[in-house]
Recover the amino acids of this structure.
């Protein structure tokens, strides 16, 4: 087995640091994609539910105003 040197040249240190940053970027990209896969579908579902709730609320307002305008309502 080859032993590690006691010192490194500037070029070797730069290569090690570049390798570390590449590994960090790759890991960060993978984590971002995982989070997107998890949270974006939830956001889409919540947005869809919100839209449906708003539509139902609009229908309720229309029904309430219709009921209020009926002649039987004032009697």
């Amino acid at each position: 087995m080859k032993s590690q040197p006691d010192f490194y040249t500037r070029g070797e240190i730069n290569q090690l640091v570049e390798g570390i940053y590449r590994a960090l970027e790759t890991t960060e990209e993978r984590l971002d994609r995982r989070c997107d896969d998890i949270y974006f579908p939830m956001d889409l579902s919540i947005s869809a539910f919100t839209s449906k709730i708003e539509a139902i609320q609009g229908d309720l307002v229309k029904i309430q105003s219709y009921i209020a305008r009926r002649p039987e309502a004032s009697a």
